[in-house]
Amino acid sequence: MTQSNGENPQRTRSGLQQIRAGVQSRSLLAKKRVESITKDDLRGCFMRNSFVILTVAGVIIGTIMGFGLRPYKMSYREMKFFSFPGELLMRMLQMLVLPLLVSSLITGKNIRSYNLN
């Protein structure tokens, strides 16, 4: 920032002032946007993202319940009661992934044999 490196100190200072002015104008614009948010905007955001919000809430609640119920001695029936939803989810994921995996393997094999001929 000195004259020895070939930069003009006045020019550098004006560049910093431009950056500062840009940041201030953007912060004012962001402040106006935040102040103009209504309840309908929030409701719409929650409705659009409800699946993600409920999924994250379910993971958090499940983790808390898992760690919270661990010290209690549960019967086999009680353990199955809590593990049933997780088993259903894992089986549904397997039903989704397994056909994709098999079709990808078959397609890859056919493409490889086609290239060899």
From TrEMBL:
GO terms for molecular function: glutamate:sodium symporter activity; L-glutamate transmembrane transporter activity; neutral L-amino acid transmembrane transporter activity. InterPro entries: DAACS, Na-dicarboxylate_symporter_CS, Na:dicarbo_symporter_sf. GO terms for biological process: D-aspartate import across plasma membrane; L-aspartate import across plasma membrane; L-glutamate import across plasma membrane. Keywords: Membrane, Transmembrane, Transmembrane helix. GO terms for cellular component: plasma membrane. The chain crosses the membrane at residues 51-69, 89-108. It comes from the Eukaryota. This is Excitatory amino acid transporter 1-like. It comes from Notothenia coriiceps. The lineage of its organism: Eukaryota, Metazoa, Chordata, Craniata, Vertebrata.
